[in-house]
Specification:
The chain is mainly β. It contains two helices and twelve strands; from the N terminus they run H-E-E-E-E-E-E-H-E-E-E-E-E-E. A twelve-stranded mixed sheet has the order 7-8-9-10-11-1-2-3-4-5-6-12. The longest helix is centred in the N-terminal third of the chain and has 11 residues, at 18-28. The relative contact order is 0.23.
Length: 200
């Protein structure tokens, strides 16, 4: 699939605008699980790394990214904090939610961020089999330029984040399950013994 970054895509024929789909999705999704493929793109437009894993979401405010390939990492959000755990480096970084937004676009789906208060939301039409919403931060202090959120048949299917350094992160979701029962302990993070912990 090819993203046409920054362009207005062909208009959808579903009759349901992507912004409306996003709001309806957020209202309907109390929990979610999905497999993901994440691709990092450099300034020249070339992929620099592709990662695979599993994503879990429990609204409000909880999510977990389990990166499985090529490197194991965990990103966990709970109780107003986000933990970034790199297993190879044996290092944990802890940030407050409001400081972590540019690091993980999942915060936009978590219910901890008032989208309409903080972002301008625009329909971007259709690219491939997805309908897209563009979220542009209203604050000039934001660490990213925009986030695109894509839906396929009104189900979350993709995200793209552009930061202020010219880097793109593209995420493709598959095997999406809406409102599955999730154990609360899934979103508890305890740093393993012997790892270095930085931050709050």
């Amino acid at each position: 699939m090819v993203f046409i970054t920054g362009a207005v895509f062909a208009r959808a024929n579903t009759g349901v605008k992507p912004v409306v789909q996003l709001k309806a999705f957020l209202l309907a999704s109390k929990s979610l699980t999905a497999d993901f493929k994440q691709v990092a793109i450099n300034e020249a437009g070339h992929p620099t790394q592709t990662s695979f894993g599993v994503f879990y979401l429990q609204r409000p405010g909880k999510f977990r990214w389990n990166y499985l390939k090529p490197f194991k990492q965990e990103i966990v959000s709970n109780a107003g904090k986000v933990w970034f755990y790199d297993t190879d480096l044996e290092q944990v970084t802890v940030k407050k939610v409001d400081e972590s937004l540019g690091s993980t676009p999942a915060l936009l789906l978590s219910g901890n961020v008032a989208l309409e208060d903080n972002y301008t939301m625009e329909d971007q039409g259709v690219d491939g089999d997805m309908e897209w919403v563009r979220l542009t931060p209203k604050s000039q202090d934001s660490s990213f330029k925009y986030v695109l959120i894509g839906f396929n048949k009104q189900t979350l299917a993709g995200m793209e984040l552009s930061d202020n350094f010219g880097q793109l992160t593209r995420i493709y979701f598959s095997n999406v399950l809406l409102n599955p029962p999730l154990k609360p302990t899934l979103f508890d993070f305890v740093a393993p013994k012997g790892v270095d912990v930085f931050g709050d």
